[in-house]
Design a protein that fits this description.
The structure holds 2 protein chains of 2 kinds.
Chain A lengths: L6 H26 L2 H16 L3 H8 L8 E3 L4 E3 L31 H4 L2 H4 L8 H5 L32 H13 L6 E2 L2 E2 L9 H4 L2 H9 L1 H4 L12 H13 L7 H6 L5 H10 L7 E2 L2 E2 L9 H4 L2 H9 L1 H4 L12 H16 L12 H11 L3 H4 L24 H4 L2 H10 L27 H13 L10
Antiparallel strand pairs in A: 1-2, 3-4, 5-6
Helix pairs in contact in A: 2-3, 7-11, 9-11, 13-17, 15-17, 18-22, 21-22
Chain B lengths: L5 H10 L1 H7 L7 H9 L10 E3 H4 L1 H4 L2 H20 L9 H10 L4 H28 L8 H23 L4 H14 L6 H9 L6 H32 L47 E3 H26 L24 H9 L1 H22 L15 H23 L22
Antiparallel strand pairs in B: 1-2
Helix pairs in contact in B: 6-8, 6-13, 7-8, 8-9, 8-13, 9-10, 9-12, 9-15, 14-15, 14-16
The chains are: A mainly alpha, B mainly alpha.
Chain lengths: 462, 428
């Protein structure tokens, strides 16, 4: 073991040393080569080509190749999408092939406040196409297909409020009319046969939802939910509405912005916030404050807005308190009052409806139609139920029940449904106990409504 | 023009004023300088100036302990760099992992290297332990060093386990949940122990803070101290174990017996079968270059393997930790899967009694098995009983770990890995 035997070591040292060197270089290259750099070079090339003066040209050539990101601490997001999508704010790139295409602005959603992923989903921190668009393993939030993009409006805005999200409103309307709430709770209201839907949009993908609506049992084995027969367009709308239910809440600044200051929104607020306790519109309301039908003629919009922020600032001595409206609420109320100047608005107050009409609202609100059919005219399939395999209709209850019996039936429900064939599996749908979910007064109204139902043509009576 | 060879440049550099001030000896030319090269260098003096030929045989030690040590160094290096980015907060830790991958220069390679080195270290520490067992190297006078070794094995598991939580993804969250649940099966102290580890009843911010502190300061500190003792004792116990040599299985050397013609310092003062200059010099070679070159070579091999792993294989990162959505099955880190498999049969026997007995027996082993035959040879005949028992335990542990890793599906039911898992009711 003398020095000549050590010569083999020098050979190995050289070989392994070079190998380590090569691997380090390879690692460096792999780390240094990033997809987004290629797009940035392409963008710089394009900018240089477009330059008309030497100064512009020099400026374009000096554009740094670097990560670009929108940091959104309130939303706990960092969106690096603009590292590749470099021209989103430059209208002259309209119609360019991606990733260098222009993105039209959406009203009050500047990129530096909202970023990209809060609407589009995907993985904002990622800097490769596959990862950023989010169609990768272990990422729950892939990009939303564009046809469902209005779902994201619903994360902050009420479905009906947003005039630029008609599909969202339509989705909600379908949700409320087909009777989903009969079995599913959403925002605290609804039945208990199916799971709550408050975060369904964060849990489920559009593909899953579609399969689920068409054939619930295919993705949720054992589900008793009947398949939904909806037109393709309606199906997409209700999927869209489901996707909007992510359970996220808009923080701080975003919460103050979420009410869209429209006259319609203002009217809703006007009724909600109890303005009519003091003010009269359309001949209804209190007399503590002035009637507001013509306030738009007497005052400028700026004056009204200031008044909402702080009544004392424009009419000293006013007894109206500072209600602490958010900025967008104040703007919406202002819009409404200005709108009154040009157009008469009939304000209907809920308590002016009769018990039957209110009961019909209750029937819709809790999704009774989901099982018992629209207006109680006929039920959905409930395999092996003695009632001809269907959930019973409700148009004959007036013949079979007294007021108190019907009331008890709704409050207590019926857990065991008689089976047609006792050997086959029990019917999956049953009547849950609604007492405690539907309010006392609401149940009274509902009973009144149900007792008013009659099959067509039976008005003649006996 | 005459281009100097790299070797000549190196030589010239070492003999300049600056070079000599740093390295003192320069490239050793004589035996005196060879021993001085070792003794006068802070980094090298931990090792002897001369080593026994037997200790250099790759077929004997296989370099397993040294590989573990190299991995530890790499882990400290990469870990320190990762600390510049990491924030032990449940809100931010996961985002840091994403940033490392997507925007930090070499961040992903760094994390990969740390992850793979951690797994490899557990693996090589186990192999090192097997080597020491099969060569009977834990016997007198090395009994206590074996005990320290067993503790180091446990600390290594602790380091890996605490690091497992830090990315705060689903894998981390549920592996630690399962792991700490196993700890809770211990009688009397179990639930308290779990509470102490987690700072609560479930894995959350407090657990992350604790695991982070343990991972970056407490356990590395303990590891460094114990590794120092471990290495110190290797030298004080007379170097690596080797078979007794006829006639010279040297007794303790009294101070006055020390040879006077020594060419190296007092640091060779040790007990046991210590090399004595002038006694059997033909069995001893100078550490420089015979030991040092082998060590460098081994380091290069470790570096190549780790670089390949780090460049081509990404460390796993699953979804952000979600305490209400457990994966099915939730699995502990691989080195605890044998334990998890045992626990699935019986929480008490599998989670407490069996591992308790195993660790206890491992710790006490040198004091149970006291015969001094068969030291320094692989699978010595005299040790057939001990080796057989150990082998059976090892095979059982490996089989249990393999079952836990590859043959357990939803609800810990039997699942052949080559078959598709049954459709999940909670499909995503």
């Amino acid at each position: 073991m003398q020095n000549d035997s050590l010569h083999k070591f020098y050979g190995w040292f050289t070989f392994l040393g070079l190998l380590v060197g090569c691997l380090v270089v390879l690692g460096y290259y792999k780390d240094e080569y990033r997809e987004w750099k290629e797009y940035q070079h392409r963008f710089i090339q394009e900018e240089t080509k477009r330059a008309t003066t030497p100064q512009q040209r020099a400026l374009a050539e000096r554009t740094p190749v670097e990560i670009r990101q929108i940091i959104l601490p309130d939303l706990n997001r960092v969106d690096r999408c603009t590292s590749c999508h470099l021209a989103v704010e430059d209208p002259s790139y309209g119609g360019y092939p991606q990733p260098l295409s222009y993105h039209p602005q959406h009203g009050q959603h500047p990129f530096e406040r909202f970023g990209c992923t809060v609407c589009h989903r995907g993985q904002g921190r990622a800097t490769t196409k596959a990862d950023a668009h989010g169609y990768v393993e272990h990422w729950d939030e892939p990009m939303l297909p564009l046809k469902y993009i209005q779902a994201s409006c619903g994360k902050c805005h009420e479905a009906g409020d947003n005039p630029s999200a008609p599909e969202l409103a339509r989705g909600q309307q379908i949700f409320e009319t087909v009777g989903c709430r009969g079995c599913h709770k959403l925002a605290g209201a609804g039945g208990i046969l199916g799971p709550e839907l408050d975060k369904v949009g964060a849990r489920r993908s559009p593909e899953w939802l579609k399969k689920h609506f068409l054939s619930p049992a295919s993705v949720s084995p054992g589900s008793g939910m009947p398949p939904q027969k909806l037109a393709e367009k309606d199906l997409d709308a209700i999927i869209l509405f489901m996707l909007s239910q992510t359970g996220e809440t808009a923080p701080g600044y975003y919460a103050s912005m979420k009410v869209i200051p429209s006259a319609a929104q203002g009217q809703r607020l006007f009724q909600q916030k109890g303005c009519m306790g003091c003010h009269m519109v359309d001949g209804k309301g209190g007399v503590v404050g002035p009637a507001l039908d013509n306030v738009g003629l007497r005052r400028t919009p700026e004056w009204i807005l200031k008044h909402f922020r702080d009544p004392q600032s424009v009419s000293p001595g006013s007894v109206m308190p500072r209600f602490g409206f958010t900025e967008s609420e104040a703007r919406a109320l202002t819009e409404f009052l200005v709108h009154l100047r040009d157009q008469k608005v009939a304000l209907s107050l809920p308590q002016l409806l009769g018990p039957v009409e209110r009961g019909h609202e209750v029937f819709r609100k809790y999704g009774c139609a989901g099982c018992h059919g629209q207006d109680g005219k006929g039920g959905v399939p409930n395999p092996n139920a003695k009632t001809a395999g269907l959930v019973p209709d409700l148009i004959h209850v007036a013949d079979g029940y007294t007021k108190d019996e019907l009331r008890a039936r709704i409050v207590k429900g019926q857990r065991e449904i008689n089976a047609m064939d006792p050997k086959r599996p029990a019917p999956p749908l049953y009547m849950p106990a609604w007492g405690g979910t539907i309010g006392e007064a609401e149940i009274d109204d509902l009973v009144a409504y149900l007792l008013s139902l009659k099959p067509k043509g039976e008005d003649a009576g006996f | 023009m005459n281009i100097p060879r790299p070797g000549q440049v190196w030589k010239w550099l070492l003999q300049t004023r600056v070079g000599r001030s740093i390295f003192r000896v320069g490239l050793p030319e004589s035996n005196l300088e060879r021993s001085q090269a070792m003794v006068s260098s802070f980094l090298l003096h931990v090792q002897p100036a001369k080593v026994h030929r037997h200790s250099l045989k790759a077929s004997y030690s296989m370099g397993l302990g040294l590989i573990s040590l190299y991995l530890l160094f790499i882990l400290v290096g990469t870990g320190t760099l990762l600390m510049f980015y990491y924030v032990p907060s449940t809100d931010r830790a996961y985002n840091v992992m994403k940033d490392l991958q997507f925007v930090v220069s070499a961040g992903l390679v760094l994390r990969n290297m740390h992850r793979w080195a951690a797994h490899l270290m557990v693996f090589f520490v186990i192999l090192h332990m097997c080597r020491v067992f099969y060569t009977g190297a834990y016997k007198s006078p090395r009994e206590f060093n074996w005990v320290i070794g067993v503790m180091l094995f446990l600390v290594t598991l602790g380091l890996s386990f605490t690091g497992y939580l830090l990315p705060w993804d689903q894998l981390a969250f549920w592996a630690i949940t399962v792991g700490t649940n196993i700890a809770a099966y211990a009688p009397l102290v179990g639930p308290k122990l779990q509470y102490l580890m987690l700072g609560g009843h479930t894995v959350g911010q407090e657990a992350l803070t604790r695991f982070y502190a343990l991972h970056v300061i407490v356990l590395p500190g303990i590891t460094f101290f114990m590794v120092s003792v471990h290495l110190w004792r290797v030298r004080k116990d007379g170097g690596l174990s080797r078979p007794a040599e006829g006639g010279d299985s040297v007794q303790r050397i009294a101070l006055d017996q020390l040879p006077t013609n020594k060419s190296y310092g007092l640091m060779e003062l040790a007990r046991g079968t210590t090399p004595q200059v002038g006694k059997n010099p033909e069995d001893e070679v100078f550490s420089w270059p015979h030991l040092i070159f082998r060590e460098i070579l081994l380091f290069l091999v470790v570096a190549v393997v780790l670089l390949v792993l780090a460049i081509f294989f990404n460390a796993p990162l699953e979804e952000y930790a979600n305490p209400v959505h457990p994966p099915n099955p939730a699995k502990a880190p691989w080195y605890f899967l044998g334990l998890q498999e045992l626990v699935s049969y019986s929480a008490f026997w599998g989670g407490v009694v069996v591992p308790g007995i195993l660790v206890g027996v491992l710790m006490l082993l040198p004091y149970i098995d006291r015969k001094v035959h068969g030291v320094g040879r692989w699978f010595a005949r005299e040790r057939i009983l001990a080796n057989s028992i150990f082998t059976v335990c090892l095979i059982v542990a490996v089989v249990l770990t393999l079952i836990g890793s590859f043959f357990r599906g939803p609800n810990w039911s039997w699942q052949e890995p080559w078959k598709k898992p049954a459709a999940m009711t909670e499909g995503h």
